[in-house]
Design goal:
Chains A, B: GO terms for molecular function: oxidoreductase activity. Chains A, B: Its cofactor is FAD. Chains A, B: This is Oxidoreductase. Two copies of one chain form a homodimer. Chain A is of the alpha/beta class and about 450 residues long. Helix content of chain A is about 30%, strand content about 25%. In chain A, the strands form six sheets. Chain A has a seven-stranded mixed beta sheet. In chain A, helix 3 crosses helix 6. At the A-B interface, helix 4, helix 11, helix 12 and helix 14 of A face helix 4, helix 11, helix 12 and helix 14 of B.
Chain lengths: ~450, ~450
């Protein structure tokens, strides 16, 4: 068991943990980051396509309002390129395929009107929800006790209208409308700049990609504090005694004055704390659960659908793949179709053997893009619920009733223990932007609580 | 680090774990039970009132249909006595106190009729929910995507009618109707013999108490396998390799052929498993959360309310104490008022200093039973969310959307890892009866999977 003395321990080298560590390091503090995996980045994960480019098996997009991530991109010498967004999109409904040019598929006029009205209502309600403190919304308890499914049943009557919002819910939360409270949905909408901004590619949260893959954000950030990051060290226990914190990981123990736990709340609750955390904090963590998502990508010699005037984007009520993007590398040296399995589909197909899952995903691609889509050069995927140190994705959300009743515990420090992670963000929760914001906020808490910078006592890791 | 070789390891010496261990021992298998606390019983906890009797700070009641618990009571040489249930009950609504003699307080006739109709509807729906497999109910997905709060808003219009069902929900789940799906509510009703049976004292789940306190069930059961139970050994990790399981607790490692994890799912998920558990199992565990409850008891020289013709039972819409029982020891050597804090009230008051909480509870008792109730000889309580090895009570339940989508994972074994605990019971989940049933079922799974009884390799613990 190696022993390290430092000032601040950060648990987790995802974007949130790295943001906290960078901020603290910049303020002259000694930091050690303990990371369970043998890599940094958490839910960001690059995959090298044998020389033809990089695709991301985890989070990947950056929106124009994600200002902290854009600042990192500049600082770290990275660049972005636009998500491929030209050509017609496809909409598959009960086996019938339609292509369309605008923002929305040609649903029936009634469905379209309904969707517009419902979206307006949701946006209007969302404006009444304080982004950072949704539990203070006027009808917090009622909204948190109503699932999105219940709200849709009362406010959207057409099958296609409901299907649209189901796709929206899956696409944003990797969960079904049955699982999400209206308050949690509205809070996310409010905290992310509105539904439009969340759903759009150009001008929205899917606008840009990072050249070389989004994990470079974490890799480069970690490089700037490389001697402070310890990989392969899953943290198991946090013990606070007087003004000292002892953080125990496999193979290493770190002693510090404070700790920032930069994990999703459900995973943060799996550490053993001494003394035990307050009941309210634990009950909140029990009620913050991970969405279910699998990213599945088929790789072709070229993005052949572009020649047919297709954007490669598709939404399907049929499933199991319900949302598809052209995820080809920037230079077009290969064509990549990205299919998302989300919520129930991710759970159902996540339990299958890889071959069976691949066959179902390719079958969906063939229905959309023709027989050629069935003969990829390569196929890569990641089922995030299977990942021991993520247990789902994209992010965690609060189950019905939890946010209104226990929400303040999400980021309230427990003595010398501080909480980061995109789930705790005051804005853009669930996005990379939220992760960075949350880490920087936790770092500021620590700096405020430890205003003096004692003489560094840290050793190299 | 002590090393033990055995055939089966059981994690947790609550009723479920002890039931499993007894069953396996009776079948000639070598068992070791690893218990985190320095006592057995889990959520059963006796408290000795300085010689005047015993009260329970945890689960306590036994209903007439709880046949396995009654069998244990006989086998273990224990006895029951009836919960005090004579005299008038009290109903406090917005500060107005009413006493009543029947089963229901004198609500307005409209409210009474509404309650009757709604109860009938709920019972009727519950009959369509298979007790052991609620995810196979006809409208499972819709019912699981509707909170009880939403259902009540549509089906119960009077304030008092809603208040009644809110009390019911709190009383059964230690959670608000906002947190419980209709499917989870109906599943519990179905699995426990109907709402009447759950709510009644005489003839219902609160009918009897165990002489000497319910924890004696666990203590006596553990006595019968005393050399097999290891206290103060919180399990941290379970590693399966080939046909062997290694269970690592603080200070002791046990090697066996199989393990039964007899913890609430949310706590079971906090162990480190190698290999990692399937994603579906983990996602289900994330979505099974503990209710919030505090049991608060004031001790008086005598049960003075009985002389006034009061039963000591009360329900209050006012709060924070919403349900009150006469919990005096059998011989009446002392009077004990038991007030439950449940759901939001447990969370709110659970965060206060003990003195403040005590003052609020006694204030409620005074409103109900007069000034004398404000001067107890003693006051004892337990806030279960604060308990590191329970993290809430009475039991865990599945959050909206989880049961329909992930329910089968609740008790599906993961290779050599089996699941027990009242949350996994096929009937009477949440009750002591469910705990015993679940432990016995898990033991049968193990016996079926390991039909031959190899020569015992176990050493004493």
């Amino acid at each position: 068991m190696e022993r390290i003395d430092t000032q601040i321990v950060v648990v987790g080298a995802g974007l949130a943990g790295l943001a906290a560590a960078r901020e603290l390091t910049a303020a002259g503090r000694e930091v050690v980051v303990l990371e369970a995996r043998d890599r940094v980045g958490g839910r960001l994960l690059n995959h090298d396509l044998d020389g033809v480019g990089v695709v991301e098996l985890g989070g990947q997009w950056v929106g124009p309002t994600h200002t902290r991530v854009h600042a990192w991109i500049r600082e770290l010498g990275l660049a972005t390129f636009p998500t491929h967004d030209t050509g017609d999109a496809l909409f598959e409904d009960r086996g019938v395929l339609r292509r369309y040019g605008g923002a929305l598929p040609r649903l029936s006029p009634v469905a379209l009107a309904e969707v517009a009205v419902a979206q307006l209502r949701l946006e209007r309600m969302a404006r009444r929800v304080p982004a950072a403190t949704p539990w203070e919304a006027p009808h917090a308890s009622v909204w948190d006790g109503t699932t999105l499914a219940s709200w849709l049943r009362r406010n959207v009557r057409t099958r296609l209208g409901r299907a649209f919002f189901e796709l929206v819910c899956e696409g944003l939360f990797c969960a079904q409308p049955q699982e999400i409270s209206l308050l949690q949905f509205l809070a996310a909408v409010r905290a992310s700049g509105g539904l439009e901004a969340m759903l759009e590619t150009e001008g929205g949260a899917q606008q840009d990609r990072v050249v070389g893959g989004s994990q470079l954000l974490a890799i480069r950030a970690a490089d700037t504090i490389a001697d402070r990051v310890r990989l392969g060290a899953p943290v198991r226990a946090v013990a606070v005694s007087g003004d000292r914190v002892l953080v125990r990981a496999d193979g290493v123990e770190a002693r510090a004055r404070r700790v920032i736990v930069a994990l999703p709340p459900t995973l943060a609750a799996r550490l053993a704390y001494a003394p035990a955390l307050p009941g309210g904090r634990d009950q909140l963590a029990q009620r913050s659960v991970m969405g279910a998502v699998a990213k599945c990508m088929a790789v072709y010699e070229t993005p052949f659908w572009r020649a047919d005037g297709l954007s490669g984007q598709a939404t399907c009520t049929t499933g199991p793949v319900r949302i598809v993007f052209d995820n080809s590398p920037r230079d077009g040296a290969a064509g990549v179709l990205l299919g998302f399995l989300e919520g129930d589909a991710a759970r159902r197909l996540g339990a299958l053997a890889p071959d069976e899952r691949r066959a179902l995903v390719l079958e969906a691609f063939v229905r959309l893009f023709g027989a050629r889509a069935g003969r990829p050069l390569d196929y890569v995927e990641r089922v995030w619920a299977e990942e021991e140190f993520s247990r789902g994705g994209y992010a965690g959300f609060c189950v019905p009733g939890a946010l209104a009743s226990l929400g303040p515990h999400l980021r309230r420090p427990c003595g010398r223990i501080h909480w980061a992670g995109t789930e705790t963000a005051e804005a853009f929760g669930g996005y990379m932007e939220g992760a960075v914001l949350s880490g920087e906020r936790a770092a500021r808490e620590v700096l405020a609580a430890e205003p003096a910078a004692p003489v560094p006592a840290a050793q190299g890791v």
